[in-house]
Amino acid sequence: MATRAYAGTNVACNDEGYMTNLEEWTQQVGEEIAKEEEVEMTPKHWEVISFLQDQYRAEVPLTIRKIGKSGVTNIKEFYQLFPNGPLKKASRIAGIPKPVSCI
What we know:
This protein is mainly α. The chain has helices at 27-36, 43-57, 64-68, 75-81, 86-94; strands at residues 2-6, 9-13. The chain has one domain (2-94).
């Protein structure tokens, strides 16, 4: 397990760079991870991030299809918000582990 510094805070991450403790996440941490992922955050991005965190806390397995049916965003917009691996990128920015549905 590795530790990375974001926004002046050390956070625990796994070997793939996903945070292992959501309690260490802040919006500033998420913003810095988004910069690494080359994602310019907007209010819509934060809405999706909040949804992902809520689902994670509720122990609901995440899939792109489930996000598309959530009413928060549709699948096409999800891919536009987080190009090239939307669920992986969004999960990393949200400070949650990579979903099992991601390869």
